[in-house]
Design a protein that fits this description.
It is built from 6 helices and 14 strands. The chain has helices spanning 5-24, 26-29, 66-78, 98-105, 120-125, 127-136; strands at 36-42, 50-55, 83-86, 114-116, 139-141, 145-148, 155-160, 181-186, 200-205, 214-215, 219-220, 233-237, 240-244, 262-268. Helix 3 (66-78) runs parallel beside helix 4 and helix 4 runs parallel beside helix 6 (127-136). It is globular.
Length: 269
C-alpha cells in the first residue's frame, strides 16, 4: 500500500531525527534533561491568586534517574508554589523502586498541598503501589474525586481517572453545586472534548510529551491515543482553558528533539 507525499516526508523526517539522535547523542544525552520552566498566567476569576506547579509523565523506570529528578524537584521548590499538580504516568512498566520517587517527592511542601491524577502507564505497571507511594509522600491522589480548592470560595479541584486505561467518571462535576467552578486534573488532554460544562474553567493534562521529537513545519512526529488533538501548550474554548504539559520523562526512545521537558508554573488569578 502506498503512502501520501506528506506521509513520506513525515516518515523521512522521523528517520532523520532518530539517526541524528543516535549519531550526535544530542536528544538523548542533553535535551531530554534540559527541562524548561514555563510560566503561564491565566485569569480564571479566582478569589485570590494561586501559583500551581505542574509535573507530568515522570516515567521513573526504566532509568530510575534520581539525580535528574532531584534537580526537577529543586526547581519546583525554588518557585515557591502554593500547589503542585501531578498528572500521571509516574512509571512506565514497573513500580519496582518507586519508593525512591516518593522519597524525592516528599521534599516538596507547597503551601496548600499536592494533588495527583493517574495515567495509563500507572494502571498498566502497578497502580496500587503507585497510589500507596504517592499518598505516603503527602500527595493526594484524586480518582474520580472532587475536593475544595484551598483558599478559594466556590472553587473545587477534580481528578479524573485515565481515559485510556482506567475507569473515568465524568459525572463527578454534575454532583457538585451549580455555583461550583472547577480546575480538573486529567492525564489525557483529548478528554477536553468531553467536558464542555463552562464551570470547568481549566483542565491540566500531560500524556503527549509534546511528541518528544518535533520536526520543523511538521510538529510532533508521533502522538498517543487520547493525545492526538491537543499536543502541547495552551488551548482555549470560550471561558474554558486547557494546558498540556510536555512532561519530564520519555517513553519508547529515551530522546527529545525540539521538545524540551517542562515544568509549568500556572499563575492563576
Amino acid at each position: 500500500m502506498g503512502i501520501s507525499r506528506r506521509g513520506f516526508i513525515k516518515r523521512g523526517l522521523a528517520a532523520a531525527a532518530f539517526i541524528g539522535c543516535g549519531s550526535v547523542a544530542y536528544g538523548s544525552g542533553y535535551e531530554r534533561y534540559d527541562f524548561q520552566v514555563s510560566t503561564v498566567p491565566l485569569h480564571l476569576g479566582l478569589t485570590s491568586p494561586i501559583r500551581a506547579a505542574v509535573l507530568a509523565d515522570i516515567h521513573f523506570d526504566p532509568f530510575y534517574e534520581t539525580r535528574y529528578l532531584a534537580e526537577v524537584f529543586d526547581a519546583v521548590a525554588a518557585s515557591s508554589p502554593d500547589l503542585v499538580f501531578y498528572l500521571g504516568d509516574y512509571i512506565t512498566h514497573s513500580s519496582n523502586r518507586f519508593e525512591e520517587f516518593g522519597q524525592l517527592a516528599r521534599m516538596l511542601r507547597p503551601t496548600y498541598g499536592s494533588f495527583a491524577a493517574l495515567g495509563n502507564h500507572d494502571h498498566w505497571g502497578g497502580v496500587a503501589k503507585v497510589q500507596q507511594v504517592l499518598e505516603a509522600a503527602g500527595i493526594h491522589v484524586l480518582v474520580n474525586a472532587v475536593v475544595p480548592l484551598p483558599g478559594q470560595a466556590d472553587w473545587a479541584l477534580a481528578g479524573i481517572d485515565s481515559f485510556w486505561a482506567g475507569r473515568p467518571d465524568s459525572s463527578v462535576f454534575s454532583r457538585e453545586p451549580a455555583s461550583t467552578r472547577f480546575i480538573s486534573l486529567i492525564h489525557e488532554p483529548d478528554a477536553w472534548d468531553i467536558f464542555t460544562d463552562p464551570r470547568i474553567r481549566l483542565q491540566v493534562s500531560g500524556h503527549t510529551h509534546g511528541g518528544q521529537i518535533r520536526a520543523p513545519f511538521v510538529g510532533a512526529l508521533e502522538l498517543p491515543s487520547w493525545g492526538k488533538k491537543y499536543d502541547a501548550g495552551l488551548f482555549r474554548r470560550g471561558d474554558q482553558n486547557l494546558y498540556v504539559n510536555r512532561g519530564i520523562g520519555t517513553v519508547k526512545v529515551p530522546c527529545r528533539i525540539n521538545c524540551r521537558p517542562e515544568i509549568t508554573l500556572l499563575e492563576l488569578t
